[in-house]
Batch of 3 targets.
Target 1
Amino acid sequence: MSRRPLRIPPDRDLSIDFVRAICLPIVVLLHALQMGIGGDPLRAFNALAGWSPLAGITWIGMIMPTFFIAGGFAGITTWRRLRHRGETAGEYIRVRALRLARPVLFAMVGVLLVIGVMALCGADPEFLRTFAFRLAEPLWFIAVYAICTSFVPLMAWFHHRAAWPTYLTLAALVVAVDLLGRYAGLPLGALNWLFLWLFVQQLGFGVRDQWYSRRPRWLLLLLAAVAYGLICVAVFGMGYDPDMIANLNPPTVVLLLLGLAQVYLFTLLQPAIRAMMRLRPVLVTIGALGMYGMVIYLWHTVAMAVVVGAQLAAGLPFPPVLTPEWWITRIPWLLAIVAVIGVFCVIVPPIERLWPRERPRTMPLWAAAVCTLLLVVAVGWVLTQGYLAAGTGVAVGALLMAIVWLTAGGPGPVRADAVLEDATIRGVPRE
């Protein structure tokens, strides 16, 4: 990348690539620091659960809304491109689900292999259970992202015909679910995994259509300040948790306000980001992070498992968390994880390219939805039960079945235009 001429499509917004790439190291850093191992006998737990400065850091460092804003931008861009070519919503969901399902399956198998080796080497089964559960936690993003992505064609339709009512309805649903759960005790919080992240994804649609960039800069700054002001009201006046990560499960109205603040601040920074992306070193770095983004996100948990396994095999101690010694050892800990991730970035993509190409059979919407549901259920099971639960094998099998179906396509005949295209590639002239 550093030597070849870089060709950027004229309709590509490099500021989106920038924020997606920058979010990855933040996610890896947070998950690596959260991995606490200690006690007698050893157990895995959240090392930062009792670290009070984390709450303040998350007001800026909690970047998952930005991830979904960028995902909304990319999703509606891809959908509009496919629709322009005459593709259906089913085909869009098929493509997006397959791009998620294949890497997720490989990463899940990678975690299971490392845990299996640790078990064969005599690791404590109860430690492995707690450790495997911690390794599964980042999968929540895959499950929610798969759901939101499957809604892109429908939400794009609403965005085109009734943008403001769509925003207001989703926001009202988030607030209603949150307040009913908080003050009426109704167990509805899980619904905001859908309503909240669809709302934030919808903000990405607005970025794609330049809604915010056409506003005066002073107004964007004011709106961001108002959003953060309302977060202060919710936290200090209504008793919401000041830790933005704690507001993830279930998602609360605080994250809705944080998403609004981040979309306004991102729009303010877009001109500066685009200027930075004209610098070749920055462009190459961001391009590399983007190229290996899925590997970095999915395989950093496998990398943590490898490093912990090596530490156990070498008999190295695990310092008590949050002590000065623990903080000092986080430096080699992080460097080791980054080194293993670098190895995975070399060996994983060639393996992933061995998947067979999708068959050119049109996939109806219901079939694509069923495959997406299989993906979500499989990932959701491992997320909530851990890698070592009794049903993990069934979950992996369901995910593999979804991949096979998405690859085969159908049910239905082979597309005529695909047959003609394949014949042309093979040197047979079109009639």
Target 2
Amino acid sequence: MKLPAKPLLIAAGIGATLLGLGLFLGGRPEVAVASIRRDLALDAVPAAVKVSPEFQVTISSDVLGLVRKSNLKIGQVVKEGDVLFEIDTSKYELTLSQLEQQLTNIREQFALDLDQRNALDRRKEDLALLTTRAKAGEYPQFELKRRQEELTMFVESQGKDRLVRDQQIADLEHSIKLIRRDISDCVVRAPAAGTVTELFAQPGEVVALRAPLVRLFSQALLVEARINEEDFSGIKPGLDASVRFLAYGPELYPAKVVKVLPNADPLNQQYRAYLEVTIPAELLIPGLSGEASLIRNRRAGALIAPRAALKDGAVFVIEGGVAKRRPVTVGFRSLSAVEILSGVAENAEVAVTQLESLREGIRVQVSR
């Protein structure tokens, strides 16, 4: 059933009155305020921060064999050179013994092979005698030439046999060298100090060649700051910075830029700088993320407002419990503050919370 227009107007008026009364009696937004003050303004470039190990490495097996021994545990800290795994060497030692015996046999055969040397000596003596007889006319020259050619062919044959034997010796020596390296590789050592983060093999398992054994994270950590291309100008080693990690709330930690990479990441065109952060060692752990301000310039005696007070190029000044929107011109920016060049005066109180709820002329309750 359609209601008459007059009752509807009366109902709307009552609603508006109740709403106004509610606001008057306590519906006003409660805001925290801060004073505009003179202080040091910082031209600080924002950056996303991530803490990661200086390196992470997956150590693989260079041999095939049975894992004989390992006492590793997840989270264990190892030093450079520590033994991580011992792989059974028995089959490699057996192969080594066989190869060494073959090498010994060939060398002994070569050393004791007198028949070849004696045969060559006899042929040379015979040729020398025939040469003397040929000069005296007692032996045909064509026969002498044939004997000389036979000696040359015999010497060449002996040379070929020697080359084959030398190659056999070289091949055996190379195989022995490889087997000895395999035996050495059966003891897997840590290439650097680090923390065990994953284990892929246990004692009693047979591991394949190139199979992963363990993953290590280095104890040395890198604090990487990623900077947008438009903010990269002027970023260089030696700049001061401040870092806030999400895990530790609003706490700011002083830092310094120690390294800047000259090339941008082709995927997102962000540049990378590395920071040295002054923070207790036990708090700096892999996986932390946060934000940083890299300080390019400073200006003393500037008007400073909390960064939280700025919204859409304006601040809300609170005067007599009333919010008044004031557009401002901003200069330097840092992680927590902005420099005000114009728009508000020193000592003005500006809202730093509930900005989404504020409108020009709205009455507020100030939280002290």
Target 3
Amino acid sequence: MQISIIIPVYQVEEYLKECLDSIVRQDQKIAVQAIIIDDGSKDRSSSIAQEYVDRYPDRFEYYRKVNGGLSDARNFGVPYAKGEYLMFLDGDDYLADHACKTIIDTFEKTNADLLFFDYINFDEEHQEVYHVYEGTSSFVSAKQYLLCPPTAWNKVMRTKLYREQKIYFPKGIWYEDLATTGAYVNFARKLYYLQDGLYYYRQRSQSIMNQESYNPKMMDMLPAIQNLLHQMDCKAYYEELEYLCVCNLFYNSGERLLKYHRTKELTKLVQFVNEQFPHCLDNNYLKKRSRFYRLICSFVSKEHYRSANLLYKLKNKMV
């Protein structure tokens, strides 16, 4: 078996066929093991999954478990992986037709430990390639990798490495990818970026990133960051981790929380960053961002929330 693809599924009957069809369309010369993990779906997802197992028994396996969330479903699937390489595919997304062949060819050419690639954001009306790294296909350093989006589904790793390190996505929190994928640099020594959009990432209005009201789970950004810092060598990657804290706990969380006037919650995040990284506004990566971005981070850091919120509103009007 060349590549194992773990597919967590929960209440995605509307999109699941498109996802599984993308597995069927992969090059037949590539040995693909698609492991469908049904996380207790109550819609037709289970019957759709079983249909594909029956039709394509050489490609699909199906396992059902009690609902435990995305992290739990991913962790559940890992022991079943038989492929040399391991990746994740969410049940409402899908792969480009050439994805698996390109992945295998790239691993054989580079002998990398970990491969990551671009993806396509799409919805019913349009699609756009998102480049996760500013450069052409090449090996990247651990520091360069840390500054790329932490999404789990655009990364492929040697299964043996993944198992040896006993990697687990933290159960029960949002932002589980941020909590986990950065620490891959602890053991994946050869990191390769592939400038190719191999993954189609569906934009859904009801997703975690598109909430219409405040949800206490938005505060999971803090344990996610804490989990990452706990796993990392903070001295070796101090500036990169400092920058990630500023981006996620100041800028991103500030925009989400101030929208719903959650200043008390935001202050908890701000205090954490200022305690861990007291000179974070002098971060060299932050200095490369726009003055507008830096000004928002400065306002949030100093708890000048009204000024920060005005800038967020101005930014949204400009989009």
